[in-house]
Write a structure and sequence with these properties.
mainly alpha; 375 residues; 16 helices; Fic-like fold; Arc Repressor Mutant, subunit A; two-stranded antiparallel sheet
Length: 375
């Protein structure tokens, strides 16, 4: 069972949230497959982008979508090494580390969505395997990918405006204490996720205890957020299991990153605790509840975007495809006339409609105007 008892206020909020989760599940059941496929792909891209940027990667969602398209041909996944040179040439070699993080997160997250049910009961081998996949494109991690940490590590928050570094958590030391803590956590999780009625609360305790252990040398935050989604999909809540594939919780966490780190610190006081009852987990439960709520609210915006997309003219789709093939560029009218082969008036009309629909943003005025893709 849980190591904390939720307050009546928290339980009431959970019940209110559950109503909306059920409504979304019903909405998804009536949605046509083309829209569901588009929505899930959008959520996948958003989650990859947010989870990697939380850890200071530098790719935008538009660039990540291009990477995803580049690595997917005829519905089949293409090995990163086959496309590596093309991707680095397009997105800049000085961002190679960010690209490696994105490609690894894409593979690990995609696997989690597809195989969450098969991963139950959860095992340490599964978690280590996910970690190995996550870091498999980062050569410097080859010595520790998929293995528990060989040396001490700290959870550190960096203020990029001031350069201030703050220790969020001092986790377990490497070796026997980390190994024992992970064994205990997995045993607890496999029992609690099927027995306790509120899946979100089990997922909250699970991911925090995992982060408090910080079992890997690198990648704990990304793996922890993937494990949070796996827990939501493994719980005994069919509506939540269906809905979670169509909401981006990580996107909301990214938007509230300072609060995320401060809440993690407040739960533990900055120290790993052997007894999980010594953590103050309710504030983190409230945080995740609010993130899920915000993610649910965003679904209607995405559906409106899809509706706007299918209403676009053939010329607008051609211009949009031009931007998607070059997400790193800001293009002007002349560039687009040359690249699309469309007449100038058609491109002008397409740009007006794409800006109005929220697919592009206009930078500057008059003949010098340039346009940039918005994911």
């Amino acid at each position: 069972m849980l190591s904390f008892s939720p307050t009546l206020k928290l339980e009431k909020a959970l019940k209110t949230l559950q109503v909306d989760i059920v409504l979304l599940a019903q909405e998804l059941s009536n949605m046509d497959e083309a829209e569901k496929t588009w929505l899930h792909k959008s959520i996948l891209i958003s989650t990859i982008g947010a989870s990697t940027r939380i850890e200071n990667a530098a790719l935008t969602d538009a660039e990540i979508e291009w990477v995803d398209i580049t690595l997917t041909e005829d519905g089949k996944t293409t090995a990163y090494e086959e496309k590596r040179t093309d991707i680095l040439n397009k997105l800049s070699k000085d961002r190679e580390r960010s690209i490696e993080e994105v490609v690894g997160c894409r593979e690990a997250l995609g696997l989690a969505y597809i195989q969450a049910d098969e991963f139950f009961p959860l095992t340490e081998s599964t978690i280590r395997g996910m970690h190995k996949i996550l870091l498999s494109y980062y050569p410097k991690a080859s010595s520790y990918a998929g293995s528990y940490k060989p040396s001490p590590n700290l959870v550190v928050s960096v203020n990029h405006e001031t350069g201030e570094r703050r220790t969020v958590l001092d986790p377990t030391p490497p070796g026997p204490l980390t190994e024992a803590a992970m064994r205990d956590l997995i045993v607890w999780y496999n029992s609690a996720i099927k027995e306790y009625p509120w899946t979100i609360l089990v997922a909250t305790e699970f991911v925090f205890r995992f982060l408090a252990i910080h079992p890997f040398q690198d990648g704990n935050g990304r793996i922890g957020r993937i494990l949070f989604l796996i827990a939501l999909m493994q719980g005994d809540d069919p509506a939540l299991k269906q809905a979670v594939r169509f909401i981006s919780i990580d996107r909301q966490i990214e938007r509230h990153r300072p609060l995320y780190y401060s809440t993690l610190r407040n739960v533990s006081g900055g120290k790993y605790r052997t007894n999980p009852e010594d953590y103050n987990l309710e504030p983190l439960a409230w945080f995740f509840l609010k993130m899920v709520r915000s993610a649910l609210d965003e679904v209607s915006l995405l559906r409106n975007r899809y509706a706007a997309m299918i209403r676009l003219s053939e010329g607008a789709h051609t211009v949009l495809a031009c931007f998607k093939s070059s997400p790193e560029k800001r293009l002007n009218l002349s560039d687009l006339v040359q690249e699309t082969g469309l007449i100038r008036r058609s491109v002008q009309n397409a740009l007006v409609n794409l800006v109005k629909a929220g697919f592009l943003q206009r930078l500057g005025r008059g003949p010098s105007s340039r346009y940039q893709l918005i994911f």
